[in-house]
Design goal:
Number of strands of chain C: 16
Number of domains of chain C: 2
Largest interface: B-C, 78 and 92 residues
Oligomer: heterotrimer
Shape of chain C: elongated
Low-confidence stretches of chain C: none
Structural class of chain A: alpha+beta
Largest sheet of chain A: 8 strands, antiparallel
Radius of gyration of chain C: 23 Å
Low-confidence stretches of chain A: none
Chains: A alpha+beta, B alpha/beta, C alpha/beta
Structural class of chain C: alpha/beta
Strand content of chain A: 15-25%
CATH class of the domain at 228-325 in chain A: Alpha Beta
CATH superfamily of the largest domain in chain C: HUPs
Distance between the termini of chain C: 54 Å
CATH architecture of the largest domain in chain C: 3-Layer(aba) Sandwich
Helix content of chain A: 25-40%
Shape of chain A: globular
CATH class of the largest domain in chain C: Alpha Beta
Mean pLDDT of chain C: 88
């Protein structure tokens, strides 16, 4: 017995008021997809179920009201803030879902430079927080490409990671405390302490839940000192990707923490660096930042390591610095890319995985070759490693294909999912993780049991405990 | 039937839109082409905006003619250094026979930027060498953006030229129907090859992307490389007679940039209206 | 030729087009204000008026920016015949400086004639000064990011004007002394027209943009066709004219006739609200004469923030709709 769309809208009016409920048909249709099926918005061809409404609560109590009402009435809820999700986490798979959008909760609650913490509501854009703390000479250290557009709620919900993670860590290293609302209406606040051993770390039930367990309403993150004047950039070209991974490993194993450490294969390097890299060149690049002594020692240490590999040819650091300054997605870049897709029908997609040092090159080579052999209309197939650890790294596959012979809404079935499938298979075969930082969303949910193995019991139990009626973002993490 | 031979001329330049104010200041203060090139050395390279439209229009014309069983041969040529190589590889994969004209030391690193006569002479000579019935170019491009290169090339080739072309379709008897922007607005006409067509603000503005397989097929195909001497063009003499750039200044469009306060969009709108708009809109 | 002798100037005008009057004004204003001679030097300017009418009409002569006029009848859409006529004129004595209005015809004539007569051409000229054997000109370069000073050497000099000269006020002389070259050009079948079946299409309706006192411009930051439409509706509600930037047209979110900037219309509103526009120079040129510019964009680092009088860091659609609630005016 599910509610009608009218009853859903009426129910929401009663909780947040009519001004906070969006029912504009155009907006609802465009909200039926996220970047995973973005071609539907770019080409204005929509085939997903249309949400019944978008509710914009102003505080945690209203969120609790919505979730408990949805729970009682079996209404599917899709939590959203900045809307930059790439794996289908925000798309509506079930009819008459309600998108609960936290953008109206956009207050920077407190910036505490002495304790190096900032508290924000879920709808604060990361760029806004970053700009605010820069006024105090500080940084969040978190810089995903979506920074100009993404909000803190979503960034925590997806276990996001930023360009400088090798120094600052991923979001999980930055979150101090938070507040989240559960389907039964419980509002839970986890306090801000530097560390504790008072039982399991329950923050990790929330961080990365992708809206499948709860709705994040407030987050406190660490702050770091900001020394842009000390930034150092280093870059090399080399022919062998395996060597590139080796060098990254050496840098990490020796304890250096550059903020950026990447190696691009020739295909991906061709997209970014053709003005200084030959068609068969890989590009290895680093950025070191922080207090002067640290930045210098990091840059010098990396220089020393790479100097031991004569196959690497150094390039002027200005190339790396110029490229880096242009990296984030502002609204202008996003619409320029949409324009390019509309005109050329050539689509750029990414899929990122992680694995240990022994496996990463194998995964990269085999997945890349299989995609080139098995998928039609590929125009570029490559990738780069951008987040390294002492015990392994990620591989960010970057690929382009022409959409040929099918409508834009069929791109997912003809190209995107088969490519993801190949990458996932090659990664699972070698014990890696099928998703490094974009989140499972709905796209990779079919592989959740393969990803977890026997530990799936723990994940599943979290879901049945916190969301027994299954109203939270059906299809995300747990396939329908 | 012999194919219609189309040659598209294109230019590769630094992505000037990626330059920051400090880079522009450096560029403006530069003492000559080499120093100007230095200010833009580290940004990526891009195709001229109108040139890219010309390339895609050429491909669509080939496809439209093929639908009628009419053969077309496509060639692309550029005057420039090695920065053009990745673009030539892409165009080869799309089916263009490619040629690069090395302008020589006198014109290296942006030396031709403000010398349309020399550029046009090289483009025209290359088009003639490649044998083009139709020479397609972007209507303007590069730092100079004079818009004269298509006409100068047409003059050298002894052909008519239309600029501001926004679309291109096959017409009877191996002619072309063109839509273009004339002095008084849009117009349509039939162009009779041999001719030069300069592409302007076409709605089709981006060139399609070749597949990896298409790239593999042409990987070992040569790109014809010519020097100015090969083409019989005395670049030095043409540069000597060209107008001389003696100084550059930034255009200062700065205004006060007062940030309008307010938390929500509605509050900001109110502050803008009360503080700035109402008095101005109420003036007669 | 000494510095004291008279500079012979030919101002060339195609009198048959829709915008002939504006182009004539541009030539007149430039000759009056934009061309600087050396100390003690003078200029003798003659307008060469080409027209396609079957009968030579007085109203076309009346546009001429100089007192002395040479009127030549030519079939329409024949830049080749105009070029031939001017080349013949040049070889018969000619002028030192030929000035053309900006636009495709002027560019074609300047380029071809420079090549044919061993002279030098320059387009988009803002100002020109004779300095001995050299003509020193200023023009916008790098897509209107910088201005350049460029010196032209060998005469004759063939220059076209920057479109901004078309905004200048200029009254043509009341009296004209006309020499008619009626017999110079015939619709000569031995010379093939460069284009066949020329058909003028309906020109874009941009009059409202050029004269608007209150203008709203939407850019990429509107986010979607729907966003652009909402901003347009807000503009209409406020009685403002509505325009867009090139990326919006390229995205097919609005019709090309709404485009403002170097490849669109140039405006001069008293009040201009620029929403979701980053502020590239090629666009700014289209609104830089506005009395007051307010920029609305979520990116406070966008170039437009420095080039506006007031900056709102907020979503373009939200602000414009909120403004529309405050400003309800009939169109001006």
């Amino acid at each position: 017995m599910s509610l009608s769309r009218e009853a859903i809208v009426e129910g929401l009016h009663g909780i947040v008021g009519p001004d906070a409920v969006v029912t504009d048909e155009r907006v609802l249709i465009e909200s039926s997809v996220d970047n995973f099926r973005k071609l539907q918005n770019i080409f204005d061809v929509h085939v997903m179920p249309v949400p019944a409404a978008i509710a914009m609560p102003k505080n945690a109590l209203e969120v609790a009201g919505i979730l408990s009402w949805a729970n009682e009435n079996g209404v599917n809820v899709i939590p959203r803030t900045g809307g930059t999700a790439t794996e289908g986490g925000l798309e509506s798979r079930t009819p008459d879902s309600v998108i609960v959008d936290g953008s109206a909760m956009n207050e920077i609650v407190k910036v505490d430079p002495y304790n190096m913490q900032a508290t924000v509501q879920c709808g604060v854009p990361l760029q806004a927080l970053e700009d605010r703390v820069r006024e105090d000479g500080l940084t969040t250290g978190h810089s995903p490409q979506s920074k100009p557009v993404a909000h803190l709620g979503g960034l925590v919900a997806t276990r996001s990671i930023g360009q400088f993670s090798t120094l600052y860590g991923g979001i999980e290293d930055m979150v101090v405390g938070l507040e989240a609302v559960f389907p039964n209406g419980e509002i839970c606040r986890i306090k801000n302490v530097p560390r504790r051993a008072a039982g399991p770390d329950i923050r990790h039930v929330v961080i990365g839940n992708e809206g499948a367990l709860c709705f994040i309403t407030e987050v406190t993150v660490k702050l770091f000192p900001y020394f842009p004047e000390n930034n150092r950039f280093l870059g090399w070209t080399l022919k062998d990707m395996a060597l590139g991974f080796e060098v990254l490993r050496e840098v990490m194993v020796n304890g250096y923490k550059p903020s950026v450490a990447r190696v691009y294969d020739p295909g991906d390097a061709g997209i970014h660096f053709s003005h200084f890299a030959a068609p068969d060149d890989c590009v290895l690049l680093f950025m070191a930042e922080g207090a002067a002594g640290i930045a210098r020692a990091t840059a010098d240490g990396i220089q020393e390591i790479v100097d031991r590999h004569p196959e690497c040819t150094q390039v002027p650091s200005e190339y790396i610095e110029t490229w880096f300054n242009d990296l984030c997605w502002d609204a202008s870049k996003i619409t320029a890319e949409d324009e390019r897709i509309r005109q050329t029908r050539n689509v750029n997609r990414t899929t990122e995985i992680s694995a240990d040092w022994s496996s990463i090159n194998d995964i990269y080579q085999s997945a890349r070759q299989r995609i080139i052999d098995e998928i039609p209309d590929i125009t570029m197939m490559g990738g780069h490693s951008s987040h390294s650890y002492i015990n392994g790294t990620n591989m960010y596959f970057n690929y382009f294909f022409n959409v040929v012979g099918v409508g834009p809404e069929e791109e997912t079935e003809k190209y995107y999912l088969p490519i993801i499938g190949i990458i996932v298979e090659e990664t699972l075969r070698r014990g890696g993780s099928i998703v490094h930082h974009h989140g499972m969303g709905k796209a990779r949910a079919p592989w959740v049991k393969d990803e977890y193995g026997s530990s799936y019991y723990m994940l599943e139990t979290l879901k049945t405990a916190f969301d027994p009626r299954g109203i939270m973002n059906k299809g995300t993490i747990f396939p329908i | 039937m012999s194919p219609m031979r189309i040659v598209v001329g294109f230019k590769v330049t630094p992505d000037y839109e990626a330059l920051r104010p400090a880079d522009w200041a450096r560029l403006a203060a530069a003492g000559g082409p080499a120093e100007r090139a230095e200010a833009a050395r580290y940004v990526r390279r891009v195709l001229g905006v109108f040139d890219e439209a010309a390339l895609e229009l050429a491909l669509r014309l080939r496809d439209a003619r093929a639908d009628h069983g009419l053969p077309t041969s496509l060639a692309a040529c550029t005057v420039g250094g090695r920065e053009a190589v990745p673009f030539l590889a892409t165009l080869q994969a799309l089916g263009f026979a490619c040629a690069r004209v090395d302008p020589g030391d006198a014109a290296a690193d942006g030396g031709l930027d403000f010398a349309p006569t020399a550029t046009a002479a090289l483009v025209a000579a290359c088009a003639q060498r490649l044998g083009g019935d139709v020479l397609l170019l972007g209507e303007r491009g590069g730092p100079g953006g004079s818009g004269t290169v298509p006409f100068l090339a047409a003059e050298a080739l002894g052909r008519p030229c239309v600029t501001g072309v926004t679309s291109l379709e096959p017409a009877e008897y191996e002619r072309l129907r063109v839509t273009f922007t004339a002095d008084d607005g849009p117009a349509r006409a039939v162009a009779v090859p041999p001719c030069v067509l300069a592409v302007g603000n076409a709605v089709v503005s981006m060139v399609r992307v070749p597949t990896l397989k298409e790239r593999l097929t042409v990987r070992d195909h040569p790109v014809a490389e010519y020097t100015a001497a090969d083409l019989g063009v005395d670049v030095g003499a043409l540069l000597a007679g060209s107008p001389a750039l003696t100084s550059l200044e930034p255009i200062d469009r700065r205004r006060s940039g007062v940030v309008v306060p307010g938390g929500t969009p509605a509050e900001k709108a109110r502050a803008l209206y009360d503080g700035h708009l109402r008095p101005r809109l109420e003036q007669p | 030729m000494t510095a004291a002798s008279s500079l012979r100037v030919a101002a060339v005008l195609d009198a048959s087009g829709l915008n002939a009057e504006r182009r004539a004004r541009a030539l007149g204003a430039f000759l009056r204000d934009g061309l600087h001679l050396q100390e003690g030097a003078t200029a003798a300017a003659v307008a060469h008026v080409f027209c396609a009418a079957d009968a030579l009409r007085d109203d076309m002569v009346a546009l001429a920016p100089t007192g002395d006029v040479r009127q030549i009848r030519t079939p329409s859409h024949r830049p080749d015949l105009i070029a031939a006529a001017l080349a013949a004129f040049e070889s018969g004595g000619g002028a030192d400086l030929y000035v053309f209005p900006g636009g495709p015809l002027g560019t074609e004539l300047a380029a071809r004639l420079a090549a044919r007569t061993g002279g030098t051409a320059l387009t988009g000229v803002l100002k020109a000064a004779v300095r001995g054997r050299v003509l020193s000109c200023r023009r916008a370069v790098f897509s209107s990011q910088l201005t350049a000073t460029i010196e032209l050497g060998p005469r004759p000099w063939y220059v076209t004007l920057d479109p901004s000269w078309e905004d200048a006020a200029f009254e043509p002389p009341a009296v004209h002394s006309v020499h008619v070259e009626a017999a110079l050009l015939r619709d000569d079948l031995s010379t093939l027209a460069p284009l066949q079946d020329v058909e003028e299409l309906k020109p874009p309706d941009t009059g409202d943009l050029e004269t608007a006192r209150f203008l709203v411009v939407a850019g990429r930051g509107a986010g979607s066709r729907g966003g652009v439409e909402r901003i347009a509706a807000a503009a209409a509600h406020m009685g403002a004219a509505f325009a867009v930037t090139r990326p919006v047209v390229m995205n097919a979110w609005a019709a090309p006739d709404r485009q403002v900037g170097v490849s669109g219309t140039r405006t001069a509103p008293a009040v201009c609200i620029v929403a979701g526009v980053s502020g590239a120079p090629a666009f700014l040129w289209g609104v830089e004469r506005a009395g007051f510019i307010a920029a609305v964009d979520t990116d406070d680092h966008a170039p437009i923030a420095r080039e506006a009088d007031a900056v709102l860091v907020a979503d373009a659609v939200a602000v414009l709709e909120a403004l529309a609630d405050l400003v309800h005016r009939p169109p001006d």
